[in-house]
C-alpha cells in the first residue's frame, strides 16, 4: 500500500512555511509499517490541487491532503477535490451537527464561512477534529482512499489515529537504527556501504547522511532501515546488517563504531 | 515563469527529515520576484524521480532538484534525470577538474564513487560547490531549465546565487507584510478578508494563518502579499490594502490592529 501526502497552501510553495506536516504524517505512517512514496505541495488553487491529485491517483493507493479546510475564501481543498473527482459537494449532516454544537453553544451564528466547513463530497465520511473546528474528510474513490486533514499541525496530528484506523493494520513492521561515524569521508565509506548491501542482500537500506564537511573531520549518520514481516524479523536483519557493517568499518579504517 | 522544486531522498518521503530545502529555495526565489507553484518529494528511485520530473515538465518552466548528488550508491538524481530525458551521461571535464583538484591535493585516489559526482547529462553545465564536494548541474531542456543541487542545506544554499544568475532578473517585485491579530476568530474575520479582497481588487493576497485556537483567545497572523511591476508599486498596493483592512477591522470589531 503506497501513500502520498499533498500539502496545500500558498505559504508552503512560496517558502513562508516549512512543510513539517508532510514529514510528521509520513513519519507516523512509516513507523506504523506503511510506505510513503511521494509528497506534493501546491497552491490553494483548484487547478493545481486537481493536477496534484490526478498525478498521485496514478501512483499510490492512499492520498492524505493537509491544509485548506478552514473558513476563509482560500480554504478550497475539499471543494477542489469534489470538483476534480466530479463528486457533488453536499452539506454533511454529521459535520453540520458538530459545527452547530461548537458555534451555537457560544451563541455564534452559523455564517456561510462556518457552514462551508461542513460541506463534503458525496459519500465522504468525516474525521472529527478534537483539537479545532474544521472536520477532516475520509473518502473512498476508485478503490483508493483520500483523507483531508487541516494544516494546523495540532489539528492534523489529532486526526492521525483516525486515519490509521481507516487504513487498517499494516502487515509490515518498520524499524530504523542510526549511528554516528566520525572521521570517515562519505566518499570513502560509499564502497563499503555498497559491499555490505550486496553481501547481506536482505532488504535493509543503508543510507549515509552527512552532518558535516566531506573534508576536515567529516561526520556521518549511518542509517539502517527497512520493513519486515514482524518486529523480530526486521530487528534481526537490521542488527546483522549493522554488525557486518561495523566489522568492515573496523577492518578497513581501524576505527570501531 | 513558474518554478517547481523536487526534493529527492527516502529520508524526506518517509518523514525522517523535514524538507526545509524546498522552503528555503522557494523563499529565496519568491523574494526575488519569481513564482514557485509546486514542490514534489520522492524516493531515491529512478522511476519515481522520472515521474516527478515528467509531471512537473508539463506544469512549470524551471525545475530545481535537491538531494542525491553525492558519492553513495543511492545518490542517483543526475543519472536518473539523464535516463528520463534520454540524454547520455558523460564525464564533465570541468567537474572532473574540480574533483581532481579537491581529492588529489589531499593525495586521495579518484575512486569510482568520487568520479561518479563528475558525470553529467550531455549539454549540462556545472554549478560550482563552494561549500562541499559534489558539483551542481544546470541543464537546458526543451525550452526549460533544470537545476540540480545537493541536499546538504549548506551546499544547496551556496548554489542559489548561481541559479538566480542563470534564471536572469525577474520583471516582478515581491513583497509580504504580516500583522498579528488577537481575539478575533478566523471564521469571524473570513468575510472581512473577502470584502477587502473584492473591494481592493488589486492582486494582493490576504491570508490568515491561525496561530492558536478558533475559540478561547484566537490569534491570527494576517499576511498581505503579492507581486508588482516595481518595489514602489507592490508596496503601495500592499499598504493601501492593509489600511483598508485595518479600518474595517476597527469598525467591525472595535479593535485597532
UniProtKB/TrEMBL annotation, chains A, B:
Gene3D superfamilies to which the protein is assigned, alphabetical: MoaB/Mog-like domain
Residues annotated as domain MoaB/Mog: 4-171
SMART domains: MoCF_biosynth
InterPro entries given in the database record: CinA (IPR050101), MoaB/Mog-like_dom_sf (IPR036425), MoaB/Mog_dom (IPR001453)
Record Pfam families: MoCF_biosynth (PF00994)
Protein name per Swiss-Prot or TrEMBL: Molybdopterin binding domain protein
Organism: Cuniculiplasma divulgatum
Amino acid at each position: 500500500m503506497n501513500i502520498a501526502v499533498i500539502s496545500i497552501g500558498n505559504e508552503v510553495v512560496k517558502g513562508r512555511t516549512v512543510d513539517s506536516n508532510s514529514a510528521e504524517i509520513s513519519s507516523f505512517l512509516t513507523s506504523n509499517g506503511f510506505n510513503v512514496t511521494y509528497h506534493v505541495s501546491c497552491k490553494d488553487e483548484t487547478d493545481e490541487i486537481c493536477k496534484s491529485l490526478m498525478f498521485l491517483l496514478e501512483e499510490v493507493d492512499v492520498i492524505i491532503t493537509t491544509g485548506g479546510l478552514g473558513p476563509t475564501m482560500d480554504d478550497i481543498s475539499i471543494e477542489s477535490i469534489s470538483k476534480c473527482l466530479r463528486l457533488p459537494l453536499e452539506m454533511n449532516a454529521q459535520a453540520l451537527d458538530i459545527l452547530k454544537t461548537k458555534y451555537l453553544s457560544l451563541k455564534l451564528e452559523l455564517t456561510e464561512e462556518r457552514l462551508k466547513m461542513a460541506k463534503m463530497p458525496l459519500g465522504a465520511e468525516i474525521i472529527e477534529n478534537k483539537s479545532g473546528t474544521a472536520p477532516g474528510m475520509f473518502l473512498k474513490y476508485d478503490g483508493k482512499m483520500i483523507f483531508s486533514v487541516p494544516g494546523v499541525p495540532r489539528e492534523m496530528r489529532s486526526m492521525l489515529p483516525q486515519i490509521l484506523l481507516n487504513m487498517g493494520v499494516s502487515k509490515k513492521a518498520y524499524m530504523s537504527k542510526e549511528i554516528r561515524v566520525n572521521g570517515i569521508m562519505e566518499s570513502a565509506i560509499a564502497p563499503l556501504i555498497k559491499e555490505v548491501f550486496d553481501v547481506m542482500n536482505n532488504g535493509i537500506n543503508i543510507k549515509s547522511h552527512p552532518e558535516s564537511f566531506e573534508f576536515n573531520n567529516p561526520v556521518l549518520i549511518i542509517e539502517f532501515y527497512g520493513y519486515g514481516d514482524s518486529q523480530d524479523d526486521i530487528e534481526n536483519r537490521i542488527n546483522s546488517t549493522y554488525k557486518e557493517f561495523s566489522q568492515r568499518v573496523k577492518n578497513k579504517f581501524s576505527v570501531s563504531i
